[in-house]
Each structure stands twice: as C-alpha cells, then as structure tokens.
Amino acid sequence: MSTTLAANSIAEFLNETDLWFIGKLSPETALIISACIHAAILFHVFAVCPAVFIWLERKGSGRIQDRLGPTRVGGRFGWLQSLADGIKLVQKEDLCPPVADAMLFKSAPYIVCLASFAAFVVLPFSHGWVAVSADCGLFIMLAILSLEVFGIIMAGYSSGSKWSLFGGMREAAQMVSYEIPLAICSLIPVVAAGSLNLGEIGDMQGGAFWNWFIFHDPFTFVAFFVYFVVATASCKRAPFDLAEAESELVGGFHTEYSGMRWSYFFMGEYASMFAVCGVAAILFLGGWHTGLPFLDVPLAWLRAEGGVEGYLANVLGAGVFASKASFLVFVQIWVRWTLPRLRIDQVMITCLKYLVPISCFLFLGAVIWPLVFILVSNAITPGTVRTTIMEPIGARVAVGYTEKKQSSDSPSSIGPSAPAESDAWGSSGPAEKHSSTDVKGGSLTVGLSTAEVVR
Amino acid sequence: MSILFTIFALAACLGAVAVVISQSMARMAFWLVVSLGSTAGLFFLADADFVAAAQLLIYVGGTLVLLVFGVMLTASGPYLKIQTSPAETVVAGLIGLLFLFMVFATVSGVDWEGTKTKMLAENGQSTPTEKFDDQSEGDTLRPLGLALLGVRPDSPNSPGYLLPFEIASVHLLVVLIGAAYLARAKRRGDGS
Amino acid sequence: MQPDLTSYLLVGAVLFVCGVVCMATKRNGIGVLMGVELVLNGANVNFVAFSKYTALGLDGQVFSLFVIVLAAAEAAVALAIALNFYNNHLTIDVDRANKLKG
After folding, report:
1. Are A233 and A174 in contact (CB under 8 A)?
2. Do B68 and A453 touch (CB under 8 A)?
3. Calpha distance C102→C100 (Å, rounded)
C-alpha cells in the first residue's frame, strides 16, 4: 500500500526473524501477518469502546435521573453490565419480518458497523500510533463516516415498516445536511495547521495548552463548539436523534431489528461517537498532549528518543487521548439525558439556517485571521518574531512540498517491507518540524515565492 | 497487493453486474454502493488516495444517499419494481457482451509500454517526467491542491487547473439553484 | 502478479459496459441514473490507472476529481427532474415520458 503503514514496523521485525518452523518469511507474508495483528488490535478497540460507553451511558443516565443505574453485574458499579447485555443479545432470536427485503435487511447492520470500524483505521491514538498515516487522513475519515448513513437508510427502507421508513428518510435528510457544517468546521483547524494528516495535526499542538488549536484564534474557539454540536447530530444522538425517536417512531430505523443485528447498530453508533470525539480531540484539544508544559516537553523528548521510554510515553499519550475523547463522549451522554428532543423541522432549520452560515463565516474568518494577525502585530511592534503557526497557509503548504521534494532525493522506499517509512514518522516529530522551517531559510524563501505565485 | 487488487476488482465488477441484473431499486442502490466502494479501494491501490476519499465522500456518501432518497420519494409501492421485458433484456445483454468483447480486445491489443516510450520520445523527453510520487507514493494531496490553484511543481509546462476549478464551482452553484428550483414544492392555486 | 495497466483498464471496461446496459434496459428513471454513474466510474478507473502507469502524471487524477464533482451535480439535477416528473405523472417509468408537454 502506498501510504505509511504502522504495520511496516512489525513487518520489518518479522522480516529479520528466522522462524524455525517455516524458515524465513517473505516480505509479503510478513506484511500480511503484521497487518492482521494491527487489525486485531484495532478491532478490540472498536469492540471495547461501545461496551464501556454503554455502561457509562446507563450509569450516567441513572445518576442524572436520580437512580443508581446498574449495580449488580460484576461487582459494585455494575461494570460488567455491557458484557451481560451482549450475552443476552447473542442468545436472542434473529428475526426478519416477512415483508422485509431479506438480503438488504440482513446486511444493513454490517454496513453501519463496517463504516464506523473503518474510521478507526486513520485515527491516530498517539504519536505515530496510527494504522494508516495517510496524508489526507481527515478527509478519508469524513468520507468513511459518511458511509454509515447508507446502512441506516438501507435498514429503514428494507424493513418494510412505516416507522422504519420514516426513520430512514429523516436520517437521510438530516445526515446529508449535517455533513456540510461538519466538514467545514473540521476544516477550520486544518487551515490553522496546514495539513490534513491527523498525526501531524496532533503533533503540532505539543508544548502547552495554549498551542492547542482551540486557543489558536477566536474562530477555532467557536468552531470547536459548533463542531461538537454538529458531531452530536451526525452520530444521531439526542437532542438530534430524530431517526430513532422512540416517542413518535417506536424505534425508527431499528424498529424491526432484534438480537445481535440490533446491537450492531449500537456498536456502530457508540464507536462513531468515539471516532468523531477523537477527531475533535485531535483537531481542537491537542490530541495526545497533556497540555502541561512541564510534562509535555519531556514526553516529546522521550518520544523522539524512541526505545522503551518512548513507547511508554506513547502509551501515556494514548491514555491522554482516550480520556479526552471519552470526556467528550460523556458530554454527549450528559446532553442526551438533559435536553429534550427537537422536532424534525427544527433540526433541519438549526442546520441549514444557523449552523451552515455560522460555519461558513468561521471558515472565512479563520482564513483571513493569519493575515490580519501579522499585519496588526507588525503595525504595533515592527519585526515581531513570526512563528510557524502564524505563517499564511500557502507558505506552509509550499514549504512542506519543497521539503518533501528535497528529501525525495534519497533512495525511494516504497513497498511492503520499506524500512525507512516507519522511521519517517519518528523523524517528523514536533520539535524538528517546527525548527526545520526556521533553520532552512533557503527552503522557506522558495516556499514563500511559490506562495506568492499562488496568490 | 495483488490479492487486494483481485478482491476489489472482483467486487467492483460483480457489483456492477448485479446492478444490471437486479430488479428492485433498493437492491440496485446497494450493489451500486458495493461497486463504487470497491472502485474507491482500487483508487487507494493506485496511489490516488485523495481521489479515493473524494469518491467515497461524494459518490457513496452524497450521490447514492440522494439516489436512495429519490427511490423512497418516488416509490408507489413498498418495493418499487418496474420490469423490463425478457426480449429487451436478452438483446441488451447480447449487445453488452459484444461491446465488452470489443473493448477487451482493444485494451489487450494495445502495447501500452511502447506507446508510453513513443509519446515520451515525441515530446522530447528521453526519461520519464519527474513523477509526483517519487518517495511518498499516494501522497497526492499537496500536488493536487497546488494543481487546482494553477501551480504545477511536478510539471512546470502544464498550466494547472485554476480556470476549470472556478468553472466547476460556478457550475455547482448553478446546479444548486437549479435543482432547488426544479424540486421546489408547488402549491396549488399559485397559478402555475 | 502485480496489477498492471491492462487489469485496471479491464475493470474500467466492465464497469462501463454494465453502465451502458443498465442505461439501455432500465425503465426506471433512477435506474438510468445509476447506469450513468457506473459509466462515469468506469471512465474514472481508466483516468486513475493512466495517471499511475503512464506519463500522464497527476492530470489523470485531477480529471477524475472533476468527473466525480460533475457527476454529483448531474445526479442532483437529474434527481430534481425525476421528482418533477413523478409529481406530474405519478410514475418514473421513462417510457411514459413520451409527451413533450407538462
């Protein structure tokens, strides 16, 4: 595969080893084995996320409604409740209504599950901990998350029930319109970062919490809240859960489903909640950086060093990232049990009349901001130091491109067993990334001249 | 690589065939998703990751949802089926097979390597042009973006695509207005 | 065997032919639309394949991007027309669209 795969590091390791029972592994076999290992790890993340969040949802809703929530299963806090639910759901009968289109009805839950699982492929958990480090990772992420709609519409349409059909139609209308502000809002920090690679965006925000993109300028600050609202709607969570409004549509698109197929929808829903919240954490909240300068600087140094300490630093980073994303998921749960549900026309009006114009305005503002910032700061104090983050986006894009061009003179390493590719990740750490543009004055001027051509 | 290619290619082709064969509109939409999604997989394999993601986002996430929406809105029964007569199907299938055979024969008859070297020789370049994907294959994002803004670092002679890009954006605006106008709800007694 | 240009072109050809047959045989307006999408996709596969394997370079990918965007626009307009047609005729059987008046 073309883009940098995390599996390459394991593949490299397997390449070296001489297994006594099959002899030396071919590079392709090594890649396939390591890809399978990665897929298994990711799949477990995907499977554990819903279990934890469903427990959290039950517990949270219980507390908000002045109840206790699950208490019995698995000790004091009922933390095995999701597992027990899962076992119960597996045992249930897998019903398919006679009027349903059986093939579509049965395959729809898999589409939903597949879409939200595939989103985890490009989601980085820590520095370099990503299955596929694609250069347009965010774009791929948005694209994959938009596939989930199709499964839900299919489920609604093929159930052969009025409730499901209405749920499916609502979902289609809602998702198609909410995708627009979602994409625009996630582009706002991209404008500030100058990259679509989620890993790079996360690395840029190291150092301290004022480097997080949410505090980058006023537009990104507002954009975070708009993004969060839109993300809540695009996971069809309350108060936007019109597709499954229990009081009007029985269960919406999943009225006719039972047993495991029903639970696939919920696995998909909770997993995609984690995915959009993870994207929010990376884009706005500094990803795997703690935000505390006295912690972040040594951690970044450890990561650059590599070895066991770097690995442990990455584990810590993954923990920080997961807790940030889980907090956002918790806020979604909190909102769900606090706010009443909107009507469908109110949902559409919220999107088309308010969120789309707001996000367009924020996008424009975020594009103009660096120019205004530089002009104003130069007017007040001439000769202010320009950091990388203040550069106009065109300059940074061009610098990145010319740097890539220059580094491509080294022997190219494409293919499954490329040894240099996993190292490319390590060397593009935050420290070197920021300093490289300052040190390489020559490449910067090249980049600036290209940027002027762009303008 | 070749295994993945085979899987995606088979899924794309079989999905396309199933679109033609199936009679129910919803199933056609489903098979179209399978076909277009695996085509996106083929694009990933061909180092065109931005195009692949655009295909997923625009086709599968946008256009097909729109199509299914249309199927739902225009369905008169629970599962819309408009049968074609068997004779038509047979004739169309035969013509399609003939056409497929013709295209296959043409494609496999051309010596692509020879054409490539010939083209390069005619253009006065002894070596192939510097490709956009020297080290970072699949990293097409920056070159694509620069090309759409009219800058071509990879091939300086090319003029870039700024004008087509602007035309496409105006075209999209026109389409937006036109589609909204065409599909607007007509009120009775409005005169029209 | 690594996939080469010919195998990509063959996939493109299959998609194209399926699209043409779909356009020719389906009597449902939206089915015809799906055929158009398949045809455009077959062309896209060819563009991307040529961009990878020949001296065409990046131009093929830019072209396929334009194709995708224009296909989306085309689908939106065609769907609006289909809905309008359904409002007037209560069916989207394209064979019934034989009167050139509203």
Report:
1. yes
2. no
3. 7
Q: Do residues A144 and B56 touch, judged by C-beta distance below 8 A? A: yes
CB B168 within 8 A of CB C70: yes
SS3 A341: coil
Number of structural domains found in chain B: 2
Distance (Å, whole) CA A195 – CA A428: 13
Please give the Cα distance from A112 to A82 (Å, whole number): 20
Positions of chain A with pLDDT under 70: 1-28, 243, 245-247, 306-307, 381-455
A306-344: buried (b, 16+ CB within 10 Å) or exposed (e) per residue? eeeebeebbebbbebbbebbbebbbebbebbeeeebbeb
Measured between alpha carbons, how far is A402 from A391 in angstroms, rounded to an integer? 16
Distance CA A252, CA C88 (A): 30
Choose from C2, C5, C14, C46 for mutation: most chain B CBs within 10 A. Answer: C14
On whether the CB atoms of residues B9 and C11 are closer than 8 A, the answer is yes
Segment A174-190, tens digit of pLDDT: 887 888 888 888 888 88
Q: Closest Cα of chain C to B183: distance in Å?
A: 5
Last residue of a domain, one of B106, B131, B166: B106
Number of domains in chain C: 1
Residue B82 in tokens: 């408009």
CB A348 within 8 A of CB A246: no
C51, part of any domain: yes
Chain A: residue whose CA lies nearest to B34: A111
- For the stretch B135-158, pLDDT in tens is 445 567 777 877 887 777 666 666
